[in-house]
Amino acid sequence: MGSKVHLTIVCCALALSATTVTTMSGFKVEVRAEAERSVTSVLPTGPAVGDMELSPFYRWDGELPEKPGHLLRKESAPVQKDLESASEVLRILYTSTDARWNSGLLPVSGMLYLPAGPPPAEGWPLIAWGHGTLGIADVCAPSWAGLKKRDAAYVNQWLGAGFAVVATDYQGLGGPGPHPYLYWQSEARSILDSVRAASAAAPGRLSGKVVIAGQSQGGGAALGAANLFREYSPDLEILGVIATAPNSTFPDGPISLPARNSANMFFSVATVGLRDQKRSVEEILSDKGKKLLVTALQGCTREVGIEAQKLGVKSLADAFSIPLEELAATRVNATDMPQKTMDIPLLIGTGLADHTVEPMRQYALVSALCAAGNDVTWRRYDGLDHDGTLNGSFQDSVSFARALIEKKRVVAECSQISAPGPVQEPDPHSHHNVD
Q1: 96-123 burial, b for 16+ CB within 10 Å, e for fewer?
Q2: Spatial separation of the C-alpha atoms in residues 88 and 76, rounded to whole Å
Q3: DSSP characters for 182-245?
Q4: I need a surface site. Which of 134, 163, 209, 217 has the fewest CB within 10 A?
Q5: 3-state secondary structure (DSSP) of residue 41
Q6: 113's torsion region: left (phi>0), alpha (psi -120 to 50) or beta?
Q7: Which residues, other chains included, contact 128 with Cβ-Cβ below 8 Å and sequence gap of 6+?
Q8: Other C-beta atoms lying within 10 Å of the C-beta of residue 24
Q9: How far is C-alpha 345 from the chain's CA centre?
Q10: Distance separating alpha carbons of residues 118 and 195, to the nearest angstrom
Q11: Pair 165, 158: CB distance under 8 Å
Q12: Distance, CA of 374 to CA of 413 (rounded, Å)
């Protein structure tokens, strides 16, 4: 017997008690919190958690196969103009595992990009890519909205280098339910299952050799995939991981830093929820936070940024009605990851002008990975900011990936790492810093 996706409109992490939310299409729905909120077997769905009707492709009403990574459907998609190295683009829908609400398997969407020209005899190697922050509403899914110019340039470089690229939207972006922003356990599974689905979508054209890459939010997802793949997907040949501007945190690592309370962390608290699932997020939102949440459930980072600026929300302190110390005790620390030897080479790329995930935070991440016995290569880039690091690191990334495919030894650099200095100002002359 297969399993069905639960489409009951309930509230869990995104509880909006008796709140009416209007979607972009004008549809109104009243959502009430469940009396018993400890139940975690039902996936919250509906407009109140960011669900939208994009197209029938994204909705699966039938039985779901009882295995993750199963390709449910695929369809041809237009080749974005910035992807001149792509010969074919496929939109895919596949099964993955809900690790946040434990509702079982659910559909996740994504894209598969294939390079120009015939594949080599053994097939193209595959980059499994995790994108950075785009928003929490379905309309933000890159398989629907298209790649941002920065991201398209990055994917195009991989295609030009002879790699196919599968790019998950992540759980809840496009597919049903909330997008558990920064919750690495879910995002990692979305990446790993996209690899399985890609093989089914392009049979005989992929080599089976996989390098996982991710930027910012996706950097954390990529490291999460490295953490999980031996247990979750031992059938996959994961050679290594590239994480640029990663946001993972290691509470047991050698360097302790305070939690990030920047405004974009609002997405995570709002979607992942609180440790006490009987308590709704709305209970602790300020009036500004409530208004910002409505925008976040309908728009993407641009619209949310404009609304945050209009409302004067500069940090989590402005969006919540409780002190940050109390919020820290009740929020789920979605980026916290256990220290573990991941058994594959890791490349970390850090822009020394990154004011979003500051270099010191990335140094703490690298230190934790090294302390756990991982093989880490850490590349630092003068003058590159959070966005600029993605494409500014590409030559190091492709050299790393090719070395793994060619079974060349990648030299770990843990003995050479040192703390970065103060955060630099972005180089105004670097074209990589333009998002």
Answers
A1: bbbbbbebbbbbbbbbbbbbeeebeeeb
A2: 8
A3: T-HHHHHHHHHHHHHHHHHHSTTSEEEEEEEEEETHHHHHHHHHHHHHHHH-TTSEEEEEEEES
A4: 209
A5: coil
A6: beta
A7: 165, 166, 168, 191, 192, 194, 195, 198, 210, 211, 212, 213, 225
A8: 14
A9: 20
A10: 20
A11: yes
A12: 10
Q: 69 forms bridges with which residues in the sheet? A: none
Residue 203 exposed, middle or buried by CB count within 10 Å (0-12, 13-18, 19+): exposed
Neighbours of 391 (CB within 10 A): 23
Paired with 237 in beta bridges are: 209
Residue 12's Cα: distance from chain center in Å? 21
The torsion angles phi and psi of 97, rounded to 5 degrees, stand at -105, 130
Query: CA-to-CA distance for 136 and 298, rounded, in angstroms?
Result: 8
**Distance separating alpha carbons of residues 142 and 283, to the nearest angstrom:** 31
Whether the CB-CB separation of 362 and 348 falls below 8 Å is answered with yes
Could you read off the pLDDT of 86-121 as tens digits, one per residue? 999 999 999 999 999 999 999 999 999 999 999 999
Residues in the chain: 435
The CA distance from 344 to 375, in Å, is 7
3 state DSSP class of 299: coil
Closest CA to 217 of 425, 357, 381: 357
- Give all strands (DSSP E) within 102-178, no chain letters: 104-115, 124-130, 164-168
Instruction: Name the one residue in this structure whose structure tokens are 């030897």.
Output: 341
Q: What is the rounded end-to-end Cα distance, in angstroms, of the chain?
A: 47
Digit-coded pLDDT (tens) for 1-52: 444 443 332 333 343 333 333 322 232 333 322 223 333 468 988 888 888 9
Residue 234 token pair: 């031992």
Q: Please state, as a whole number, how many other Cβ atoms lie within 10 Å of the Cβ of residue 136.
A: 29
What is the pTM for the complete model shown? Answer: 0.90
Q: What totals of helices (H) and strands (E) does the chain contain, helices first?
A: 12, 11
**Do residues 59 and 70 make contact, with C-beta atoms less than 8 angstroms apart?**
no
Angle (CA) 183-397-180 rounded to 5° is 10
- Residue 304 makes CB contacts below 8 A (sequence gap 6+) with 135, 267, 292, 295, 296
Q: Using one digit for the tens of pLDDT, what is the confidence trace for 182-226?
A: 999 999 999 999 999 999 999 999 999 999 999 999 999 999 999
Alpha-carbon gap, residue 166 to 149, rounded angstroms:
17
φ, ψ at 198 (rounded to 5°)? -60, -40
d(CA 432, CA 100): 35
